[in-house]
Design goal:
CATH architecture: Alpha-Beta Barrel
Strand content: 15-25%
Radius of gyration: 17 Å
Number of domains: 1
Number of helices: 11
Strand order of the largest sheet: 1-2-5-6-7-8-9
CATH topology: TIM Barrel
Structural class: alpha/beta
Number of strands: 9
Distance between the termini: 14 Å
Shape: globular
Length: about 290
C-alpha cells in the first residue's frame, strides 16, 4: 500500500496552474529550470487527463493520494477548494483525500475559509503558502499565528510549503520560523512540504526537537543524486521514521519516479512501510 501525500492532479483549476505549463521544454538545456533535468513528462500532464493520471497511479502502485490545494498570488496557481472537495466526493473508489488552501492575506477570511473547508466541505487538512501571498509573508508572522489560533480547534494537520522555490529569498524557507510555529502551537501537527530544502540539517534538527513537525522531502529527497538528500534519508532511518511522509508532488515529477526513488533509500521494510503509507494514515486518522 502506498499513500502519496501531495498531488495536484489534472482536474479543473489545477490545469490552469503554472504546474501544467510546458516548462523545461527549451532546446537549450542551459535555460531549463533545475527540476527539469531528468524529468519525463507523463501523458496525464500533456493531455490534462484524469484517466491517464489514475492509470499512472495504478502503474506506480499508489493506492491513495492527497490532493493539496494552492492559493498563490505569484501566478503559480489558484485552485478553489470546491474543486478539491468535488474530486474527493465524486471519486467512486475513495482514493483521494483533500487539503484546502487558504490565503493568508486576510486573516479573518483565511480562518473562515479554513473552517468552512473542514466543517462543510469535508476536507481533511489545510495548506498555506504565506511566502506566495500577494505580499510575501514569513510563516511565523503574527498574522499567521492569528490564523493558526483560529484554526487550532479543528484538530487537523496544517501543511506549509517551505523551500528555495517558495518566496522572494531564503529567509522564507528558514527552519527557525517553522520552529517558532511548532513551539507556539504545540497542539497542531505541521507538515513541512519540500522539507525546507536546502536547509536539510536545520529542518531535521527542528523535527528532532518538536514532535508536531512532519517532513515531506518529496522530489528533494527522491530525485537521484539530489544534493543533501542523504540528510533526510539518515534521519528517516533513525528517529524520524514516524514523521516522514512520502509524496511525489506530481506533476513536478512522475509518480513512478517518486516511488522508485524512495525504494532507493534502502530503508528497512518496516520503516519503508511507515513512510510510504502508515504515517499518512495515522496523521490523518484514517
Amino acid at each position: 500500500m502506498i499513500f502519496d501525500f501531495r498531488v495536484r492532479p489534472p482536474y479543473r483549476g489545477f490545469c490552469d496552474t503554472g504546474l501544467y505549463s510546458p516548462w523545461g521544454m527549451e532546446a537549450d538545456s542551459r535555460q531549463w529550470p533545475a527540476l527539469s533535468f531528468g524529468r519525463v513528462v507523463p501523458p496525464s500532464v500533456l493531455e490534462h487527463s484524469m484517466d491517464h493520471f489514475v492509470s499512472e497511479m495504478d502503474s506506480a502502485g499508489i493506492d491513495r493520494a492527497l490532493v493539496m490545494g494552492r492559493k498563490a498570488a505569484d501566478g503559480s496557481g489558484w485552485v478553489e477548494n470546491t474543486d478539491i472537495a468535488e474530486l474527493v466526493r465524486e471519486d467512486p473508489k475513495r482514493r483521494f483525500e483533500g487539503f484546502a488552501a487558504i490565503d493568508v492575506t486576510d486573516a479573518d477570511r483565511a480562518i473562515e475559509d479554513g473552517r468552512h473547508a473542514i466543517e462543510e466541505l469535508g476536507l481533511t487538512g489545510i495548506a498555506m503558502e504565506p511566502a506566495l501571498a500577494k505580499v510575501p509573508t514569513h510563516v511565523d508572522d503574527e498574522s499567521v499565528h492569528r490564523i493558526l489560533d483560529g484554526l487550532a480547534s479543528l484538530k487537523v494537520p496544517i501543511a506549509i510549503t517551505s523551500s528555495i522555490m517558495i518566496g522572494p529569498d531564503l529567509s522564507y524557507s528558514d527552519p527557525n520560523r517553522i520552529m517558532h510555529l511548532a513551539d507556539r502551537h504545540p497542539d497542531i501537527n505541521f507538515v513541512v512540504v519540500h522539507a525546507s530544502w536546502p536547509f536539510v540539517q536545520e529542518i531535521v534538527a527542528v523535527a528532532f526537537r518538536y514532535r508536531n513537525v512532519y517532513l515531506v522531502p518529496d522530489f528533494y529527497g527522491y530525485i537521484e543524486d539530489f544534493p543533501f538528500s542523504e540528510g533526510y534519508r539518515s534521519a528517516t532511518a533513525m528517529f524520524l521514521r514516524h514523521r516522514v511522509l512520502f509524496a511525489s508532488s506530481y506533476p513536478v515529477r512522475p509518480l513512478a519516479e517518486a516511488v522508485e526513488g524512495m525504494h532507493k533509500w534502502q530503508l528497512s521494510d518496516e520503516v519503508l512501510e511507515m513512510v510510504l503509507e502508515r504515517n499518512a494514515r495515522e496523521l490523518l486518522q484514517l
